[in-house]
Every structure is written in C-alpha cells, then in structure tokens.
Amino acid sequence: MAKDKAxxxxxxxxxxxxxxxxxxxxxxxxxxxxxxxxxxxPWDIEQDFASIAPYTIEEAHEVADAIARKAWDxxxxxxxxxxxxxxxxxxxxDEAGMFGFAEVVENISTKMIDRHPHIFGDESRDKSAEQQxxxxxxxxxxxxxxxxxKGVLDGVALGLPALxxxxxxxxxxxxxxxxxxGPADVLKKIAEESHELVDxxxxxxxxxxxxxxxxxxFVMANLARHLDIDPEEAxxxxxxxxxxxxxxxxxxxxxxxRRPEDSNLAEMDTLWNDAKAAERA
Length: 281
Fold this sequence. Notes:
Number of helices: 12
Keywords: Hydrolase
Enzyme class: hydrolase
Pfam families: MazG
Domain NTP pyrophosphohydrolase MazG-like: 47-120, 186-245
Structural class: mainly alpha
EC number: 3.6.1.9
C-alpha cells in the first residue's frame, strides 16, 4: 500500500470513496480526514473557529470578485472554496459536541421556509418585491425577539465589513425614525465632520484624528444610503477605476523603457489624465 510521506511510514495514506465525486458526503469525509487527530493534516488540526473565520470572509469576497469580473469559469471553484469553509466550521463544531453539518442544513432550510410564507405557507404570493422586503424584516424582527434581542441595533454582526455594518446600523435606526430627512441634511453633516477632521489633524492627537475620520466615513455611508447607493459597490468600482488608470500609467512608461519609480508625480499625473480622457472618449 502506498504511504503518505507527510504522515510518515507508520501511517498509510487515507482513501476517500470516489463513487460519487459530486456528493456532499465525499466532502464531509475529506474534511473529517483532514481533522483526524492521528492521521490528519497538522495545519488543519491546529485550526479553530477564530483562526478560520478570516478565511471564510476572504473566500466570500473572492466569490463576489469572480462575479464582479464575470469570471464564470472561476465561479464553481470559488463557491467550492466557500462551501469548504462551512464544512470546516461544521466539522469543528461536531468534534466539540456542539452541532454538525446536518443541523446547519436543517437550520437554513427551516429558516427559508419560515421566511417565505407566501411560497410555503398560506399567504398570497401577489405582493411586490418591496413588500416582501418589509415582510422579511418583520419576520427577522420576530426572530430577534425570540432570541431576546431587545435593542434596535441588536443582532447586527460585529464581523461585517465596517462600511456594511455602518449601513445596517443606520438602516435599523432609520426604521424607528432616527434619521435625517434627506441627502441635503447629510451633506451638511459631512461638511461639519470635515471641519472637525481638520481641527483634529491640527491638534496633533492621533487618537482624536482617527475618531473624527471614522465619524466622516460613517456619515458618508449614511449619504450613500440616502442616495440609494451601495457604498461597498461604489468603493469597489473606485478601486477598479484606480487600478485601470494606474496600469495605464505603467503601460505608458513601459513603452519608453521606464517604470513608475523612474518617473515623477507631474508626469504620472499627466498620464493619469490621459488615461481618464481615453476612458471617456
């Protein structure tokens, strides 16, 4: 029998049933084998929920990235990577006697049925998407109440990207009337926060400067909400635009046998404007 060199000669290589290569049972078995205390992978064995959580977030972002780039050939692999994160967490929970993958599936299946009474229950399906969103939020509010989440902001996950969490906190507060009447009021607040940021910069207190910068970002997220803009999507678009234009600078310099470090700000700024003009032509 072939030996697994990573495990040493005393441990024969594990064999996974490949009868059904598309079945979830195969993936569950692979994860269990990787976490086996005696024959598993040392890295996988050492992990816990906290150490794996950043990878879970990263894989979710990579799924979103593949979709944004319309890289449909990459999407199955990225979704598989994200699914593995769910399997990994479920395996660790199972080992700790907390729950297993079956309970994860049961939980989400039940939740989807409960949150769609117009599909799986007696409610009429004849409603707008907007009404469905309102109904969805009402059902979620009942779920939070059942979990003893009494505060308006309870249940907004701490692990969300900060910009997304800001938006969710503001949406929750707005539902109970704590909100500016419109975008004009938010713009006034942005001007106020900008002045406070300048004052904080001049004070030399870096902690205060960081606080004021956060306040400005928070209000910017609120402006996005009032303008019906997804701030994460807007920033992703800005990142992509910056990347395109900076690469155009690199290409223009490369045509003369140079790199950005061989140039200067004035020249690169001119090349940036050239790239900007070319995009708008």
